[in-house]
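in:
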């Protein structure tokens, strides 16, 4: 369980983008929720909205071909969205009004250089989100990961100076060799860590990605767990900052992830089996109540 400085407490997370730009779900998920809350209930998760940037980015996602930048693989998903988004102004007009820390608690995810992050964070102060996630690494956005790592500390310091919300920082597994120094500097500023999907080549060094024409993409799901869970363990060993462990795929994963970190995140499983996260969390809650009742 993670408790932020504003009192928001959560054990389960819907990762950035898993439930769309608003955190209420993509169209198919919302339809599923209308059919039955037993199949899709976003209120069970702290939801992280899809990352947006200072200016709009075309990226690789196209509404008329939504799966053109996504492929299902064995025990996972690879995507190369490329941070497709409408930019800060349209995001705030379109989705900012939907934020409500009590009725629709959503953490906002942003990406950019420190100056851009500062301007976005100032704008977000007018809305009612529960936290700001700084997406410090996107596997397919074309920027140098080393550059991002060097900018990480300055990014969180810049946002901290202007935001009224708790800060979550999202890492890439390829930043593990420089995490120790950055984590030390983030202590007292960042209130939780998250972890991004894994670059294709990091997992499949001898295989060609089905999205090689889009840069390879980022891999998530069970196949990525050895990498993302390893990063979660590293971050946990480096500081007392709570860690959101990514990639829940099977119900049995939850117990393992609770031993590694402080909260459990569902990501691409929403895309492949959108009903499973809700079913898993409802089962977890029921079992916890049963255990408590037998004590």
């Amino acid at each position: 369980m993670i408790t932020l400085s504003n009192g928001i407490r959560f054990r389960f997370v819907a990762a950035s983008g898993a439930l769309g730009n608003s955190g209420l779900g993509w169209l198919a998920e919302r339809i599923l929720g209308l059919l039955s809350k037993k199949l899709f209930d976003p209120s069970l998760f702290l939801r992280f909205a899809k990352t947006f940037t200072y200016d709009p980015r075309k990226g690789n996602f196209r509404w008329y071909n939504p799966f053109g930048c996504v492929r299902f693989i064995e025990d996972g998903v690879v995507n190369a969205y490329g941070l497709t988004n409408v930019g800060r102004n349209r995001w705030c007009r379109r989705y900012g009004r939907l934020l409500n820390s009590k009725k629709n608690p959503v953490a906002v995810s942003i990406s950019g250089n420190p100056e851009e992050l500062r301007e976005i964070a100032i704008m977000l102060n007018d809305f009612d989100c529960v936290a700001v996630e700084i997406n410090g690494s996107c596997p397919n956005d074309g920027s140098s990961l080393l550059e991002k790592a060097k900018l990480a500390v300055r990014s969180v310091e810049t946002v901290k100076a202007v935001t009224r919300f708790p800060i979550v920082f999202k890492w890439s597994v390829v930043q593990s060799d420089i995490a120790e120094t950055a984590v030390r500097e983030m202590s007292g500023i960042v209130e939780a860590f998250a972890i991004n999907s894994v670059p294709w080549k990091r997992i499949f060094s001898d295989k060609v990605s089905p999205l090689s024409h889009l840069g390879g993409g980022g891999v998530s799901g069970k196949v990525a767990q050895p990498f993302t869970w390893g990063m979660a363990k590293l971050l946990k060993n480096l500081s007392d900052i709570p860690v959101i462990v990514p990639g829940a795929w099977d119900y049995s994963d939850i117990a393992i992830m609770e031993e590694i970190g402080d909260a459990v995140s569902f990501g691409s499983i929403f895309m492949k089996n959108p009903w499973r996260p809700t079913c898993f969390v409802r089962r977890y809650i029921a079992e916890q109540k049963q255990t408590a009742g037998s004590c």
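note: The chain has a mean pLDDT of 92.
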